[in-house]
Amino acid sequence: MAETVKLTIDGRAVEAEKGTLIIEAARQAGIEIPSFCYYEGLKLQAACRMCLVEVEKTPKLQVGCTLPVAEGMVVHTDSELVKSARKGMLEFLLTNHPLDCPVCDKGGECELQDMVFRYGAGESRFTERKVHTDEQQWSPVVYFDAPRCILCYRCVRICDEGMGVNALGVGNRGVIAAIVPNHHDHLECDECGMCIDICPVGALTSGTYRYQTRPWEMDHVGTICTHCADGCRTTLGVRNGRIIRGNNRDRSGINGEFLCVKGRYAFDFTEHPDRLLSPMLRTENGYEPVSWAKALELVANKFGAVKARNGKLGIIGSNHTTNEENFFLAKLARQGLGTRNIDHHRTGDLTTFFDALSGRNDALATTAELYSAKAVLVVGADLSQQHPLLAFQVRSDVRHHGAHVYTVTRGPVREDHQAAAGVRVEQGGELAGVESLRDRLKSEGNLVIAFGDSIQGESLRKLIAFGDSLGIPVKYVCLVDYSNSRGAFDMGLIPREGGLSREQMLAATDLDVLWVVGSNPLKTAALSSTNAFVVVQDLFMTETARQADLVLPAASAYEKSGTVTNVCGEVQKLKQAIKVMGAKTDLEIFGLIAKEMGLDLGIWLPDKVFEEIRRTVHGYNVPMPVIAAGGAAATAPLNGRVAALPGAIESAGDTLFTSGSLSRYSKLLNSVMEAPGGLYGNQGPGDRGQGPGAGGRS
Ligand code: SF4
Ligand code: SF4
Ligand code: SF4
Ligand code: FES
Q: CA-to-CA distance for 264 and 94, rounded, in angstroms?
């Protein structure tokens, strides 16, 4: 038990852990000490002096955000002296601050406005003309209005400490001191918007959101980001049926306040003018819109006829669709259509992973454990590019807990800046690199190993054996690509029991039907069965959709309810934020096709399907209250009973700025200049989403 001290704050007896700062001890006791520069999790700055308190037996007011509690200390946070100091500080902060609250983008959410309302004076002794400088645009998403800045340095610290980017600094001194970007007049950075989010005032504003609405005019819908596999919770600001903001300021979910550029801004694909809004049937005159009734009848007749004559059906599912959709599709395929030919674009070798773990339920690291582990080993992956949240967790673990990071990668990665050791290897040399760290890893208290797609098959078994041989507790993360890659596997979108893999389906010359749901396999491969009837469900006319006989317009993750499972195997709930007229959720499409075919596969409401998943899918009997409340529930691995599968396993190599074809239809992601080719990616500017199977929602 940690040593505690007893003190008095505002006449109240308080007990706090030794070393606790006065501001925190007061918060724990329910007493607010106002602050601007103090921010939990960031280094202390002591810049704003809003947190001044009176400590008995000290000659002057003390800074509550840097002074630790001491035995017998008597603190006053609300004395006349403190109140007048606060008023003075606010008056000072407003010296050059434009009092443009009625038109400021931060109005209603501004900490300075709130502080002045609570503690400030309505008048000022400063009558001089305010220093003014013009607003600057630093990137498509970051705007800076210097006069509104109160120099709290939160933005500088979150960019440096939290993001590991260090793109912001301070230029000049005194009254003309101002935050400056890393490239003279513009930013070259992750474009994550964390600096905007953390800014207490309207100095940093978001290019996508600014001046579109007042915050209270929006509905705030908590759901899960649809891009990478990390599963960040995001609160979407919705107004008039449009998503206009993404953030997670309520710190709900596994990511706290963290969101990367994709989660924060790349929701704009939902309103791209190329969205499919009606079923499209290929005719002699090209594609023509048809009604849903006609489209469903056509699909049901075609599928029914092929089934009746024992024809060959192949289904390629998605790693963006929900668990419920994937589960229902697998059931529809196996029970309804009588086919085992079902697969998806697999981006990590979960088959071997689960088999090698042999049903050990404690071997999957959670997102939280990447923040609490004593050591983290990253093998064959560029975590900051491919898994921004996991990378953020690891950075925070190093800063807050002194964790050790080890990297075994093909080139330099951001994690190297903090790494206890970084090993560079050629492709295929990962295991030798890992082995070279054996002695150092053995001396760690515990370890999380996160590995990319180059570790598969025998190498993966050897990696798990290596972890087991260290003699310390080891947990693993098999890094897969997309928002429900893990759920697609767990729900059975895999060619079990002799079914054809994705590659085999495309190569077969006798397929009668190819049904592609939210994936774009024909972007990089050809379909050999030239007579197959091709049905595609997607948001856009992808390369695969352009080869379809019938295209069905599908809803995106922001337009549906259900659950998804992230890279760490944690289940979270999606909540519908908007509705796009004309499109249907994939689950509804599956249900309607089943109905049209006269198949009885049960109710296709997400909650009902999830109940069935909890009953029947190993490891998914997760506690409902956790999920219903917006939390993440860890699943157990599939119990080592997955036999080896045919087909390829390959990451699409997306980077921080790409996300299969969703990024092709995100104006915002296409407008930022960075978009680097990742170490493990094959994307650069102008080469987005070119990975195998990339595009569609894959
Ligand atoms: S957008 Fe992100 S990376 Fe860029 S300056 Fe702000 S915090 Fe730093
Ligand atoms: S821009 Fe905002 S976060 Fe950065 S120092 Fe100024 S007020 Fe603080
Ligand atoms: S880290 Fe992944 S899940 Fe989180 S916001 Fe970024 S893309 Fe979305
Ligand atoms: S909050 Fe203590 S000095 Fe800013």
A: 30
Q: What is the DSSP letter of 554?
A: B
- Domain boundary (78, 95, 117) is at 78
**pLDDT at site 681:** 56
Number of domains in the chain: 4
Both 241 and 365 in a single domain? Answer: no
Residue whose Cα lies nearest atom 6 of ligand 3: it is 260
Distance CA 668, CA 687 (A): 16
Confidence band, pLDDT 50/70/90 cuts, at residue 31 = very high
> Considering the domain boundaries, does residue 134 fall inside one?
yes
Angstrom distance (rounded) from CA 486 to CA 494? 11
pLDDT at 644: 86
Range of the domain at 318: 280-346+487-634
Ligand 3 centre from 261 Cα, in Å? Answer: 8
* Comparison of pLDDT for 674 and 653, the residue scoring more: 653
Please check the confidence at residue 394 and state whether its pLDDT lies above 50: yes
Question: By C-alpha distance, which of 131, 148, 266, 267 is closest to 196?
Answer: 148
- Residue 92 within a domain: no
Please tell me what DSSP assigns to residue 539: S
pLDDT computed for residue 691 by the predictor: 39
pLDDT at 566 over 70: yes
pLDDT band at 695 (very low <50, low <70, confident <90, very high): very low
Q: Is the CB of residue 610 below 6 angstroms from any atom belonging to ligand 2?
A: no
Check whether residue 142 and residue 265 sit in a common domain.
Answer: yes
> Tell me: the pLDDT tens digits for 374-390?
999 999 999 999 999 99
**How much distance in Å is there from the Cα of 591 to the middle of ligand 3?**
30
Residue 37 CB less than 6 A away from ligand 4: yes
| Ligand 1 contact, 168 CB (< 6 A) | yes
Structure tokens at 395: 């950075």
Which ligand places an atom closest to the C-alpha of 258?
3
Residues 96, 84: Cα–Cα separation, whole Å:
20
Query: 3-class SS at 517?
Result: strand
Instruction: Give the residue carrying structure tokens 């190297």.
Output: 416
Mean pLDDT of the 351-369 span: 91
Give me the count of residues in the chain.
698
Checking if the pLDDT of 689 tops 50, the result is: no
Distance of alpha carbon 576 from alpha carbon 200, whole angstroms: 29
User: If you average pLDDT over every residue of the chain, what do you get?
Assistant: 93
Specify the pairing of strand 570-574 against strand 633-634.
Answer: antiparallel
For the CA of 152, the nearest atom of ligand 4: 4
| CB of 168 shorter than 6 A to ligand 2 | no
Q: Is the CB of 46 under 6 A from ligand 4?
A: yes
Q: Which of 224, 245, 271 is the last residue of a domain?
A: 271
| Gap between the Cα atoms of 401 and 274, Å rounded | 47
CB atoms near residue 543 (< 10 Å) = 15
What is 576-618 written as a DSSP string?
-----TT-B-HHHHHHHHHHHTT-------HHHHHHHHHHHST
DSSP string, 372-436: H-SEEEEES--HHHH-HHHHHHHHHHHHHH--EEEEEESS--GGGGGEEEEEE--TT-HHHHHHT
Same domain? For 540 and 430 the reply is no
Clarify whether residues 378 and 517 are in a common domain. no
- By the 10 Å C-beta count (0-12 exposed, 13-18 middle, 19+ buried), 73 is classed as buried
pLDDT per residue as tens digits for the range 89-100? 999 899 888 888
Helices (H), 153-308: 154-157, 194-198, 261-265, 292-308
Question: What pairing do the DSSP bridges indicate for beta strands 12-17 and 570-574?
Answer: unpaired
